[in-house]
Amino acid sequence: MTLTLERERLKRSVQHVELGLERLLEEGGVQGRAGLICNQASVDHGYQHAADLLHQHPGIELRALFGPQHGIRGDVQDNMIETGHSVDRKTGLPVHSLYSETREPTDAMLQDVDVLIFDMQDVGCRIYTFIYTLANCMRAARRLGKRVVVCDRPNPINGASVAGNILEPEYASFVGQFPLPTRHGMTVGELARLFNEHFKIECDLEVIPMKGWGRELWHDDTDAPWVLPSPNMPTLDSATVFPGTVHFEGTQVSEGRGTTKPFELIGAPYIDPDDYADRLNALGLAGVFFRSCVFQPTFQKHAGVSCGGVQIHVTDRDVFEPWLAGIALAKLAHDMYRDEFRWKEPPYEYVYDKNPFDVISGTAKIREAFEKGTELDVIAEETKAPLAEFKKLRESYLLY
């Protein structure tokens, strides 16, 4: 992008969006004993945290906080480290971890709560645990006769684009409970409706929609606040590529954790960066340039070791397809470096009997296609019919 174009982008007007949290606070609708599922990104336009706002609200008796993966403050860095129960330092409320010995609120956790309020920032990808924390809370609420209120937030990578493969039920895990596509094009409120009605959770559910949000909007097209929703999702750029490069969590290739560009940097010690970049760019994928580079992760895979690879530069996000780019990156690493390339060993998210790449992909077919030498366009073509069916299904649950 030229400097002139970048200046024009920065000057453009953005859409004001009233968040579900803000509408809840302004309009009411929740009274009495409540629990809040939140993390550090649960803020209003003034960057005030939902826990503080609800704790001060005269009509709401906030009794407990519930934390997802990475903790209520987002400080637990590693991908599968469980977080403990604690007490919130500011409000003094108990914090029940839902990424601990339990993924679902227990009866004891909910004994003093009548309504569960969910206010978390999703990233628009099936392979992200927060929406399954929501589903688990909905199941617990149904079991115990509690109410669930979902405060909606933007899908940061827009709510119009739907892409990738559909998860197969036998590959369900905590990074994919339902047969959704990799990039689902829905908000958390819309997903809650889908989970509740189509997937038959059937709890007492209310979704508080946003005002002013449109499906075509990316996060920076709005004035909605951005706080990193998880430690390795620092920017919108990270979220833009994530539906593709998250697949590298199922390999021994670094997905850039331990660098300042997680999910934008892909590499391993054995990869020739120039050769890899040349082969990727020769594919002619829309809206992206793969720049050869060398990086050294400070933690996790290949920590302290120089890795050859690429940085993903999205040149036109409206035509860029992250799932396709991620599959291309993984396929070429597999094909070019067969002697060195390795799949991650199980377990992944406590699934002990399946290849982690398959758990993340929601199918074994992609890995098997790599191993058979199937071409990229054939792999992509096989997603089209299931995607068309999902797009029809989701129409009934859209709010915007």
Task: Walk me through the structure.
- By secondary structure, this protein is α/β, with parallel strands linked by helices.
- α3 links the parallel β1 (32-37) and β2.
- The chain has two domains: 14-221, 3-Layer(aba) Sandwich (Rossmann fold), CATH 3.40.50.12170; 236-363, Aspartate Aminotransferase, domain 1.
- The longest helix has 15 residues, at 130-144.
- The chain is built from twelve helices and twelve strands.
- Helix content is 29%, strand content 15%.
- α4 (130-144) crosses α5 (188-198) and α6 packs across α8 (322-336).
- The strands form three sheets. It has a seven-stranded mixed β-sheet with strand order 3-4-2-1-5-6-9, with helices on both faces. Strands 10-12-11 form a three-stranded antiparallel β-sheet. Strands 7-8 form a two-stranded antiparallel ribbon.
Essential attributes:
12 strands; Aspartate Aminotransferase, domain 1; alpha/beta; Rossmann fold; 400 residues; three-stranded antiparallel β-sheet; seven-stranded mixed β-sheet; 15% strand
Topology:
Blueprint: H1 3-11, H2 20-27, E1 32-37, H3 50-56, E2 60-67, E3 86-87, E4 94-97, E5 115-118, H4 130-144, E6 147-151, E7 163-166, E8 181-183, H5 188-198, E9 204-208, H6 236-245, E10 265-268, H7 273-281, E11 288-295, E12 307-314, H8 322-336, H9 356-361, H10 365-372, H11 376-381, H12 384-394
Parallel strand pairs: 1-2, 1-5, 2-4, 5-6, 6-9
Antiparallel strand pairs: 3-4, 7-8, 10-12, 11-12
